[in-house]
Amino acid sequence: MTLNQMKYFIAVARCLSFTEAARSLFMTQPALSRQIQAMEEELGTRLFVRDKKTLKLTPGGVVLYNGLPDLLKRYEGMITDARNANRGFRGRLRIGVLDVYDISDLFPPVVDRFQEKYPDIRLSLERFSLGELPERLYQDELDLICTYGFSLFDKPDLVTEDVQKYDSCIMLSREHPLAYAEGLSLEDLRQERFVQLGRWVSEEGYQYIANLLNRSGVHGEIVQVNKMEDVLLWVQMGRGVAVTTNRSIEKFNPHVVIRELTTPDVKGHDITMAWRRGNYNPAISMFMEMVDECIRENGPEDGKRGN
């Protein structure tokens, strides 16, 4: 049963006259009769009782007439929604951001422009831990994520774009003897207790820091904790130090200091946006266009395109 046949049937059932229905449909009465007959043959049941003077719906015809108008209306509504979604007029975009990432340089202007241009797209922003972000992306709970690039290296079927650079730094209590030392390197911290997220939270994050410390000859105690708030708590109390970044919201905490490191391989890592290759939500590309615009305006030092 075609879409046109549904419309033909509804018109005949409403008028109970092939002549009047044909006139309203701008077609000939014989052509309309053939279409209804074809419907009946396809369905294997009669829809109308015909005699010389009257036309009536069969019980089966009544069932179709009671249901088809609403079905046709829902179908046309879905088509309209699909077209509008592809034009970016409506829909939703769910973005997950790393819990410690400082969004202030990039996200506010992007979000402002996006919501001004596409006010009918429902935009949500939530923070998640390093390990949670890719998991929620694969579970279709998020459309886009913004995280450390190294955490996505072994993740299949993702499209990624590097949007900013960051340097790994060291976080210390303000009372720490090295809090204001000049030219600090990881080698200077060989005797320190390091606090970091446990490998059960993010294997990639654990390995990144463990490898970084190992390359610098740091083989001291490593305390593994459940969440970034716990890392901050240990450091703030002076019970350890932690590797963090110069784009971390921890720098706003008045009880700790974030110090740059002179160690060479802590520089120039990527902040990356990622989405699933099979996610065809048009709002993703529209949001990323806004990201690219802001990166171009702010200069290449804040971001670059990835593959």
Describe the structure.
The strands form 4 sheets. This protein has a 5-stranded mixed beta sheet with strand order 4-3-5-12-6, sandwiched between helices. It has a 3-stranded antiparallel beta sheet with strand order 10-7-11. Strands 1-2 form a two-stranded antiparallel sheet. The chain has helices at 3-15, 18-25, 29-43, 59-86, 107-117, 132-138, 203-215, 228-236, 282-298, and strands at 48-50, 55-57, 91-98, 121-128, 144-148, 158-166, 168-173, 194-197, 222-225, 242-245, 256-260, 269-276. The longest helix has 28 residues, at 59-86. The protein contains 9 helices and 12 strands. Helix 1 (3-15) crosses helix 2 (18-25) and helix 5 packs across helix 9 (282-298). It starts with a helix and ends in a 9-residue tail after the last helix. The protein folds into 3 domains: 3-86, Winged helix-like DNA-binding domain superfamily/Winged helix DNA-binding domain (Arc Repressor Mutant, subunit A), CATH 1.10.10; 91-165 and 269-302, D-Maltodextrin-Binding Protein, domain 2, CATH 3.40.190; 168-266, D-Maltodextrin-Binding Protein, domain 2 (3-Layer(aba) Sandwich). It has 307 residues and is of the alpha/beta class.
